Amino acid sequence: MVPSGPNAASSTEPTDRSQRFLVDAMFGTLVTYLRMCGYDTVYGPDIGVGADDRLRQIAKWTDRTLLTRDRELAERTDGSIFVASTALDEQLRSIAAAGVDLTLPAEPQYCGRCNGHVTRFCGDSVPEYAPEDRRLWACESCGQLFWKGSHWADVRDRLQAIRKK
What are the tens digits of pLDDT across the range 1-16? Predict the structure, then answer.
C-alpha cells in the first residue's frame, strides 16, 4: 500500500514520483492520468498481459503497485490498491486516499500513449499539428509531441477538484 498519514509527503515538500504502477485492463483512462502526474505506469493490455497470476508476477518482479478492480486479485497481491469504481473521478479519489499524489509536475515526464520518457523537443521544425508558440516535449519511444494546452489545464482542474472533496 502507498504510504499515507503523518509520514506521507506534504504539499510543500518535493513529491516522490518513484512509485511505479501496473494497471489492469479495467482502467484505460486512469493510466493516462497517472502518466500525466509523472508516474511510470504500465498498462496490462499494452504488454499483452491480462491473467491474474501473470499480473501478480510482473508487479512483484518489477516492483510495481498493482491497481485493480478485482477484489480477489487485490487481496492476493501484496501492496496492491483495490479501486472499486468504474467512474474516473471515484477511481482518482480512491488512489488519492491510498496516498498517491495526484498533482501534475511542472513538465511532462511520461508519454500518455506508450509510457516512454518525455524530453524537451529540440527538433528543427515543428509539425503542422503542433502549436509553434508553446514549449514542446517529445516521447523518446514513440515520438508523440506534447504541450501544455487546454487538455493539461482540464486535467489539472479535475485533479484539484478531486483533492478538495
Answer: 433 333 333 333 345 6
Within-domain flag for 35: yes
Cell of 91: 477511481
CA distances to 4, 13, 83 from 150, in Å: 31, 27, 28
* Lookup result for grid cell 479519489: 93
pLDDT, averaged per 10 consecutive residues of the chain (165 residues), comes to: 33 63 93 97 94 94 96 95 96 96 95 95 79 86 91 95 84
Whether 2 is in a domain gets the answer no
Predicted confidence at residue 125, as pLDDT, reads: 78
Q: Locate cell 499539428: which residue?
A: 129
Range of 28's domain? 21-164
Any domain includes 155: yes
Based on the number of CB atoms within 10 Å of its own CB, is 158 exposed (0-12), middle (13-18) or buried (19 or more)? Answer: middle
CB 3 within 8 A of CB 78: no
Number of domains in the chain: 1
139 phi, psi to nearest 5 deg: -75, 130
CB neighbour list of residue 101: distance below 8 Å, 6 or more residues apart: 9, 15, 16, 17, 37
What does pTM read for this prediction?
Answer: 0.86
71 within domain boundaries = yes
